[in-house]
Design brief:
Pathway: Porphyrin-containing compound metabolism; siroheme biosynthesis; sirohydrochlorin from precorrin-2: step 1/1. The protein has helices at residues 20-30, 62-69, 81-94, 134-144, 151-167, 172-183, 186-194, 199-209; strands at residues 12-16, 34-39, 51-54, 73-76, 97-100, 116-120, 123-127. By secondary structure, the protein is of the alpha/beta class. Helix 5 packs antiparallel against helix 6 (172-183) and helix 5 runs parallel beside helix 8 (199-209). It binds ligand SHN and 1,4-dihydronicotinamide adenine dinucleotide (NAI).
Length: 217
């Protein structure tokens, strides 16, 4: 499987099945997409900003649901294999992405798997086991959570530093060296993690060292 980061802004995601798994996927996608969850019951799970639609489509009804909602991705999360099969078939017919929650190991070609993720925005680390061992994905996610501390601030720092070096017409080779040196400096990581400095201060220090201080912002 090839990992990709997909922007779901303004996209629709249809989740079929409103149990705990459907709810988890709905919450995840509703952070970015317009999410509809179709299910005869919803329990007391948290569906985030997803919209719930009370219905229990039979397999033959499934293509109509995709037709009406025109999703970019559909999640098959019912406990009825025939319905999940129909969701996969309908998604394939329409050429839309499909995530099947009730199957690991034997994936359908073209399917997508939802990874475990560690986030420190704008940084995201996604962990997958090729669909084979989700409990391991969850374990590794927990292990990696501390390792990522400060990465979000570092990303902001490097992006701004790169833009400022460009604006000052520093040649690409030097620019690359400066950015690479900063990301490899452990004292910068420690300072960002402990909050003793912020990304702006580091940029100003680097520009001063490069004798590039002054206002070009
Ligand atoms: C293929 C996949 C399809 C998909 O859903 O995309 C899939 C399928 C299945 N999961 C099952 C079980 C569990 N899943 C979890 C947890 C997560 N499962 C997630 C993803 C995926 N699960 C995809 C593969 C990802 C990969 O490549 O590793 C995570 C990472 C993301 C998310 O779902 O948001 C999320 C962790 C989020 C986090 O915490 O960070 C736990 C742990 C727990 O609940 O504590 C258990 C119980 C322990 C166990 O059984 O392993 C079962 C068996 C059901 C049964 O009992 O029959 C199936 C179906 C089957 O195996 O047939
Ligand atoms: N991907 C994952 O992380 C995991 C996947 N699973 C698998 O995913 C499936 C769903 O898991 P849970 O949410 O725990 O199951 P669940 O049984 O609690 O929920 C299934 C939901 O689907 C609904 N449903 C049934 N027929 C439907 C239809 N025709 N149309 C729409 N909704 C319908 C049910 O009313 C129920 O709300 C399970 O069958 C299991 O195999 C289970 C645990 C974790």
């Amino acid at each position: 499987m090839i990992p990709l980061f997909h922007d779901f802004t303004d996209a629709t995601v249809l989740v079929v099945g409103g149990g705990p798994v459907g709810a988890r996927k709905a919450r995840r996608f509703a952070r970015e997409a317009q999410v509809y969850v179709v299910s005869p019951d919803f329990g007391d799970a948290d569906f985030g900003d997803a919209e719930r639609i009370r219905a229990a489509p039979d397999p033959v009804d499934v293509p109509g649901w995709l037709e009406r909602h025109d999703p970019a991705l559909v999640v098959a999360a019912t406990d009825d294999e025939t319905v999940n099969d129909a969701v996969v078939d309908a998604a394939r017919d329409r050429g839309v992405l499909v995530n099947r929650a009730d199957r690991a190991g034997s994936r359908d070609p073209g399917s997508v798997v939802v990874p475990a993720t560690v986030e420190d925005p704008p940084v995201t680390v996604a962990i997958g086991t090729g669909g084979t061992a989700p409990a391991l994905s969850k374990y590794l996610r927990q292990e990696l959570e501390d390792a990522l501390a400060g990465a979000g601030e570092m990303a902001t720092l490097l992006a701004e530093l790169r833009a400022e070096l460009k604006a000052r017409e520093v040649d690409p080779e030097r620019r690359r060296q400066v950015v690479t040196d900063v990301v490899n400096t452990s004292s910068v990581w420690t300072a960002l993690r402990t909050g003793t400095t912020n990304h702006r201060q580091v940029i100003d220090d680097v520009l001063a060292e490069e004798r590039l201080g002054g206002e070009s912002r």
